[in-house]
């Protein structure tokens, strides 16, 4: 029972079908003028046009990259490279780690960046962000459309409207398959794994936006990303996004209701639990909660024994022991966290099973840690 769609949804049947067909017809270099190359180029162009339509962009504004992390790195560093002098970067404290790593890389090279705090529900205050960007004379702003760990949506459109002329980089990874990308973006990124396609990053740069590739010059992908794009994967990604767009509102409503059940039931069946994130202005498929007196890794292992795959909102690894920067920024508990993220195939029975198993797993973990009865 896979409940970790925020890390990548299961492969969609349309993705498998489109990928196999494109592997047969789109394997050649699309830049070549012979028949096989022209055929691959036609497939790539059709995929680009279809995907651009779904995210509200022009086809020539869209480039395909190897994965979502590369897309975010390119989006942030390219926006900074496109500004004169040594531009200041401002971003929320809960951006994806790829954004924070790009910011750290920029600062290490002599640039500067400002991180804007968020509320306890992981939402950045519109006024606080605008003030930080204005006071610091920022040249590039980064605001995620919605948080990948707790699901809280961010006021991207409102912020962009109050910062006219400031390039706004938007990580739309989690929203594209469940709703429409917010307006006001200058540079937008996505990850095809989130809508059930093979690994592929999407980078969109608005026409007229001052953006310069942070990589050595290359003729591919409108001079934004070096290398030959994976045509079959791009075809699969575009076909899958178009497929999941059909019935998007109905699916979102169904997942929202399932998540509401989890949010309402868990505190009543598991003692000392805190539900994280905005309860209303959130993604339909993500819910994260903290279990006091419990270890996150032990909880994941216990659930896995019951055939339930979730992730820890703490994003803590045994090698670094570093807690999630998102939870730290929220002031939330950084251990004993569970993130459940549903996908198109998630059912009422899946949620029933999870809710039935969870109390026993938490109780066992607490007992093993000597915290039973606390």
Q: What are the defining features of this structure?
A:
10 strands; 3-stranded antiparallel β-sheet; alpha/beta; globular; 7-stranded mixed β-sheet; 11 helices; 374 residues; single chain; 40% helix
Q: Could you write a compact summary of the structure shown?
A:
With 374 residues, the chain is of the alpha/beta class. 40% of the residues lie in helices and 12% in strands.
Can you walk me through this structure?
- The chain is an alpha/beta fold and 374 residues long.
- The chain is 40% helix and 12% strand.
- A 7-stranded mixed sheet has the order 1-7-6-5-4-2-3, sandwiched between helices.
- Helix 4 (97-108) links the parallel strand 2 and strand 3.
- Helix 5 (126-135) packs parallel to helix 6 (156-162).
- The longest helix is centred in the last third of the chain and has 22 residues, at 248-269.
Topology:
Layout: H1 13-25, H2 35-55, E1 62-65, H3 68-81, E2 88-92, H4 97-108, E3 112-116, H5 126-135, E4 140-142, H6 156-162, E5 168-171, E6 187-191, E7 201-205, H7 231-245, H8 248-269, E8 273-276, E9 286-291, H9 296-305, H10 325-330, E10 337-341, H11 348-368
Helix pairs in contact: 1-7, 2-7, 3-4, 5-6, 8-11, 9-11
Distance between the termini: 31 Å
Shape: globular
Query: Quick one: biggest sheet?
Result: 7 strands, mixed
| Radius of gyration, CA atoms, in whole angstroms | 21 Å
Give average pLDDT, whole number: 94
Helix tally equals: 11
By DSSP, the count of extended strands is 10
| Helix-strand makeup class | alpha/beta
In what range is the share of β-strand residues? Answer: 5-15%
Q: Which stretches of 5+ consecutive residues score pLDDT under 50?
A: 316-320
Helix content: 40-55%
- Describe the strand arrangement of the main beta sheet, using strand numbers: 1-7-6-5-4-2-3
SSE sequence, one letter per element: HHEHEHEHEHEEEHHEEHHEH
């Amino acid at each position: 029972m896979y409940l970790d769609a925020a890390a990548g949804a299961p492969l969609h049947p349309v993705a498998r079908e489109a990928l196999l067909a494109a592997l047969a017809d789109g394997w050649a270099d699309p830049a070549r003028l012979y028949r096989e190359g022209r055929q691959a180029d036609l497939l790539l162009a059709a995929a680009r046009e279809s995907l651009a339509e779904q995210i509200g962009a022009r086809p020539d504004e869209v480039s395909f990259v190897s994965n979502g992390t590369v897309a975010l790195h390119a989006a942030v560093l390219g926006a900074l490279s496109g500004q004169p002098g040594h531009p200041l970067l401002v971003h929320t404290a809960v951006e994806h780690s790829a954004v924070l790593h790009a910011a750290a890389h920029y600062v290490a090279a002599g640039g500067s960046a400002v991180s804007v705090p968020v509320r306890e529900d992981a939402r950045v205050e519109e006024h606080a962000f605008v003030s930080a960007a204005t006071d610091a004379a920022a040249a590039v702003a980064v605001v995620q459309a919605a948080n990948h760990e707790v699901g809280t949506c961010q006021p991207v459109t409102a912020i962009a409207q109050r910062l006219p002329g400031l390039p706004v980089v938007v990580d739309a990874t989690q929203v594209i398959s469940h709703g429409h990308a917010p307006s006001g973006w200058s540079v937008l990124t996505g990850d095809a794994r989130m809508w059930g396609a093979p690994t592929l990053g999407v980078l969109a740069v608005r026409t007229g936006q001052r953006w310069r590739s942070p990589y050595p010059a290359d003729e591919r992908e409108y001079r934004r990303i070096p290398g030959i794009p994976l045509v079959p994967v791009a075809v699969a990604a575009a076909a899958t996004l178009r497929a999941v767009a059909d019935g998007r509102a109905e699916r979102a409503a169904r997942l929202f209701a399932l998540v509401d059940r989890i949010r309402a039931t868990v505190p009543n069946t598991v003692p000392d639990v805190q539900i994280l994130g905005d309860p209303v202005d959130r993604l339909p498929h993500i819910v994260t909660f903290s279990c006091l007196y419990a270890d996150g890794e032990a909880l994941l292992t216990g659930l896995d024994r019951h055939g339930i795959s979730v992730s820890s909102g703490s994003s803590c690894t045994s090698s670094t022991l570093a807690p999630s920067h998102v939870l730290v920024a929220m002031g939330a508990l950084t251990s004993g966290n569970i993130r459940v993220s549903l996908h198109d195939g998630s059912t009422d029975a899946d949620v029933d099973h999870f809710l039935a198993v969870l109390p026993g797993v938490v109780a066992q973990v607490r007992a093993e840690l000597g915290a039973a009865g606390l």
